[in-house]
Amino acid sequence: MSALNPKTSHTYQEGENVMLDEKLLECIETAIKREEEAFAFYTDLAVNVADEAARDTVLWIAGEEKKHKLFLENFRDKGQGPSSLRKAEVIYYKLAEHLDEPEASESMGRAEIFLLAAHREKRAHQFYTDLASLYDDGIQVRELLLRIANEELKHKEKMEYLYANTSFPQTDGG
Q: CATH fold of 18-167, please?
């Protein structure tokens, strides 16, 4: 881990100069740790998943968490701004909000794996949304955190979609 200067100044493409104060650095460090934990969780989970398609999906999402960590480190160390993440419309299925989170186990089926991941991504989305609420509208840091929250929501959407299609497959009759 690199040494941190509690008052680092970065200039963004938009021309805004942002001071990375202690509070912001603490938030970024916490976010980096959470991304590391998510990567480790998904990597460990993949080892115990027998279903190849589910394992590939879990490894894909682990890779996404690794990208988030790198993005946060680049923001902290190089001042990479939020414009490098694009916001997208997300279908908000809300399955994780209405279904209990399964416990991680070696005997999990594909649907349970996707539902577990949806719950984790829901919590990650809430984490970044809560962090963003600490900053006023129009502040680059707020936009950065909201874009990462959107990334997590896109992951949740994908996991819920996979859960629904695994749990309720379409039949020949439509």
A: Ferritin (1.20.1260)
